[in-house]
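Re: beginner question about structure tokens

> Can someone show what the tokenized structure looks like for a real chain? I only ever see the sequence side.

Sure, here's an example I had lying around. Input first:
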Amino acid sequence: MKNRCQWCEGDPQYVNYHDKEWGVPVRDEQKQFEFLTLEIFQAGLSWITVLRKRENFRKAFDQFDFHKVAKYKEDKIKALMKDAGLIRNQLKIKAALNNAKCFTDFQKKGGSFTDYLWGFVNYRPIQNNYEKQEDIPSKSSLSQVISKNLKKRGFKFVGPTIIYAHLQATGIVNDHLTNCFRHQELKG
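And the corresponding structure tokens:
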């Protein structure tokens, strides 16, 4: 039996997410947008709630194509608010649309959100070595700096805790516990 991070135990969907996605370095722009958007919808809820609705989110948000999401109009917002397969929070929906526009702004300036984020860590994941779940912080000085900078760039719902969760999920920070089989696999 494999040792895993405690947070994923007890649910096959959680285990699958942990084993195959969480902490794997993401260099794809659309995937970055998906993860950031899901982190926003997770705020105040459990991650498993979001995971269980993930396919609904993909369908409703055009597979997280941020170019399309950036063009959503008021009628689309109303449709999303009526979609029982989503987390129907108007502020979060509007933040996702706003952030899609911010993603396109990076590209208009000849860059990408992905390069921007990875630039903070010199394009190499931060390798933490936590032994216990309770030792893992909910935010860091890095997530505070990124959060502040993203807010200046017009992003919404990007507080230090959401940004830290995003850094963990997208492999910019490796916070798998040291006894977890994924910690070593993702270290290289």
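Each token stands for a local structural state, so reading them left to right follows the chain. The beta strands are 126-127, 173-174.
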